[in-house]
Design goal:
364 residues; alpha+beta; 3 domains; four-stranded mixed beta sheet
Length: 364
């Protein structure tokens, strides 16, 4: 969902007549909404900077004051909404679904049973902003299953699904939201990394190109000065050496400027939360690692039609192929059961904040 899409939906829900024109909106605002937004009752909102010849046009992007003004339309309803997907859970072969989805690198699992369930999901919508020589912004949505510490793969499109129905507030909705936020934050960071990967690659290519051009320019000057110094007939070697040193200082200063110009800052801000009940199945499993075991539940939801990725017990990120720790059978990603860089001992990051082995400080 783009910012223009979001603005169109929000304005329409507040009684505004909205006509979409590519990446612009032509709107007729009720007088109270016009006063709140500080706009004429007839206005044109554009995602690009409006041209001077269009005085009724107003810029709408994440840096524009109009973005904050439109956000105030959310305040009467709050930023926490409740929805539901109607219908009973579909029938599944639970053990077969687990066999396809559950991968353990160093343990085994045993199926213990399944039952239909209506899961509460908390969907966090976040705005991300990449600030560099060019600006990139967008939205990501992460859905966390509050009961099984797992993630649904719906993204933002579920918010446009016509099958969603408004639901009564979920008991303890804000407590559920707070409990799910650490998981959502970890998953959202991965989504944002994927979203900004292409802009960052483009940025790195432009930086490498500019640095190569600058180095070529200053190397040509440096080589010419060195040739003059090598010939040295009838010339002042001290002046040529001074120019050579000045060229080196100029190159270092320009290199620092280039590094500063391509500095990157990525920020993410939660802007809305949706608590949504979705039918599915709870799948109960016993995880086995050596002589230890742990009972956990996985979720299968009707929309994805698959077993959801469970959160790592160490870092809260979604896990594909999981590792189990020896002591408490924590469900871990590769990084959270990695070897200690000092002693090479593999340890569980959910059990220990640092390596449990004592490391002898080097003598001398």
């Amino acid at each position: 969902m783009t910012l223009i899409d979001f603005a169109a939906d929000l304005l329409s829900s507040r009684g505004v007549l909205v006509d979409r024109d590519g990446e612009a909106l032509e709107v007729v605002l009720p007088s109270d909404v016009a006063r709140l937004l500080g706009l004429p009752e007839y206005s044109r909102l554009e995602s690009a900077t409006p041209v001077a010849a269009a005085p009724a046009s107003h810029r709408l992007d994440y840096d524009a004051p109009l973005f904050d003004a439109i956000g105030r339309l959310l305040e009467p309803a709050g930023r926490l909404a409740f929805a539901g997907v109607p219908g009973p859970a579909k029938s599944i072969d639970a053990e077969a679904e687990l066999d396809r989805a559950l991968r353990l690198e160093n343990g085994v699992w045993r199926f213990r049973g399944s039952q239909p369930a209506s899961f509460p999901y908390v969907g966090f919508v976040l705005q991300y902003d990449l600030a560099a020589d060019e600006r990139t912004s967008g939205l990501v949505a992460v859905w966390v299953n509050a009961e099984t510490r797992s993630f649904a793969g719906w993204g933002a499109w579920l918010l446009d699904d016509a099958s969603l129905e408004e639901a009564a507030p979920h008991d303890g909705g804000r407590d559920v939201m707070a409990a799910c936020w650490p998981l959502a934050r970890a998953a959202a960071l991965l989504d944002i990394q994927r979203e900004v990967a292409a802009p960052l690659e483009s940025l790195a290519r432009r930086q490498a190109r500019d640095l190569a051009r600058m180095r070529e320019y200053y190397e040509a000057i440096d080589q010419e000065l060195r040739r003059k110094i090598a010939r040295g007939r009838g010339r002042d070697p001290g002046a040529d050496l001074s120019r050579l040193e000045a060229t080196g200082r100029a190159f270092q200063a320009k290199a620092r400027e280039l590094v500063d110009r391509y500095q990157v800052r990525v920020s993410a801000t939660p802007i809305a939360v949706v608590v949504c009940r979705v039918p599915g199945h709870r799948l109960d499993v016993r995880l086995l690692r050596r002589s230890q075991s742990a009972d956990v539940s996985f979720a299968w939801n009707d929309i994805d039609g698959a077993v959801e990725a469970r959160a790592c017990d160490g870092c809260s990120r979604p896990v594909g192929a999981a590792w189990l720790c020896d002591d408490r059978v924590h469900y871990l990603c590769t990084d959270c059961l990695a070897s200690c860089p000092t002693c090479a001992h593999r340890y569980c990051r959910a059990c220990h904040a640092r390596c449990p082995r004592k490391h002898t400080a080097p003598v001398g």
